[in-house]
């Protein structure tokens, strides 16, 4: 980058000219809605086979009766009810059978006269003269001379076992109302009244455009500093879920000449969504182009939200034009908060029902004053029956946070923190409230994935929350999980896990993982040394940067034991996983860290063994006999699972 470009970038960042007025969430939504045309987008006629999930554009009035004739609901005999009076097991009424059998679809040709009956199958048309059906189970047939007779052993009343014409749907009846979403049940009703096609609301066409030099389409080779375009895929699927038709415009580079015509193309649709586009540092190109719109154009750019501050809302000719933040969690949160309700209205659908539940936060949550902060959470039920809301603190750049969340909590813009144990209201995401069969909280490991993967394949539902060993242990103590995955070493004794138990907790042996120092191969500061020698020497070199682990993790305890009182460069940088440590070293942002050997192999790093740690499972005693826990223990002992753990590079002790 040229010096003049650097100066321009710094000057613009200092001005923050694109955020001259940061407004609150409600004010931003009010400005946005004020100028939108939320009228559903007209009607179109589609074949019945293509109507699933569509919204009716007009009331549906039946032009036929359903059923269209009086029909039998059982196999039996069409009779005059008066002829069966007095019938009993010992005093049967004998009727002569007419010489026809009425199966479904056959039109009767003979009248049921007094003293006669006609054989009638389920769904068959009731013949003239008959007003009831006797079930075949209550009869007995025989011949007498040339006559076929039936003995009726149970009387019936008029209308017995007869579905009268129009009893389900009457001609002229309104069977569905405009705005109704067509499910498989409604499709069946439309077919029953003979509709081969139906008038539905036209799907709003929503243009989706990703912007940025760093964006790469899925399937293309990735390069350093680039990211795959997940936003376009997520947004397109979300638009379809809401009843819209996504129009994928692809990826535009940070080039105004390339971006402007694509924006113009998107404006031909009913809505335009953009995301990202600030990588050059010469200004937000998407914003600059959208700022040229009128009627009224941009109504809000910068909303006091976290995540979601960069959101830009615009309207032109009644159409929504929205620039979503580039980070996936920010993009999806702001999409569902501001765009989804608009698309539902344009698709003719009613507003989504919102559901909230009461919970408590199990750990302290810091917050930034001045912005309403929304924290994605996962819900688990504690020993007291109440819900605990575990934050999914992966940041706005995470792809998985929104998909893994059960809901979110809002932190007041004036609050600096939410203390552990604070009651909160959780706004649900989705409608599935069924709790998972097995709750696992604690330290993540690919070995644990192998165990739970076996259970999921057997039909068990598993919720795994990766909050570190200390977080998992605390959850087990509170009775919020079935299994806590931990690898905690007691600094005094060097013993793993057992010293941290309480009488209410039991320990199940898991497997052994080899921890050690990871470094780039060929680095002479580490090659050929022991982990202890290399770690202590590196701690004395200011230019040798460490990437540390988060406080409370088992690896952090091991690292602190190695370093003693030393605090090398990078000590306070806290990666939240073994993979994050390995990536930082592999990319040269750090020179060394502590991680497990399987991760070092995965990233092609050098490895100096430090200690074999115990990755075990803590189970509350009162949950040990739960069916899901027993299945977890059975999977852990399964030879195929143990073989898989060995293949991943772990040491599996002999089964106890």
Automatic annotation (TrEMBL):
Residue stretches making up the MoaB/Mog domain: 207-345
Magnesium as a keyword of this entry, yes or no, is yes
Q: Name one Pfam family in it.
A: MoeA_C
Q: Needs which cofactor? A: Mg(2+)
Q: Which InterPro entries match?
A: MoaB/Mog-like_dom_sf, MoaB/Mog_dom, MoCF_biosynth_CS, MoeA-like, MoeA_C_domain_IV, MoeA_C_domain_IV_sf, MoeA_linker/N, MoeA_linker/N_sf
- Supply the alphabetized keyword list: Magnesium, Metal-binding, Molybdenum, Molybdenum cofactor biosynthesis, Transferase
- Catalyzed reactions: adenylyl-molybdopterin + molybdate = Mo-molybdopterin + AMP + H(+)
According to the record, the segments passing through the membrane are none
Q: Which family does it belong to?
A: Belongs to the MoeA family.
Stated role: Catalyzes the insertion of molybdate into adenylated molybdopterin with the concomitant release of AMP.
What is this protein identified as?
Molybdopterin molybdenumtransferase
Which species expresses this protein natively? Azospirillum formosense
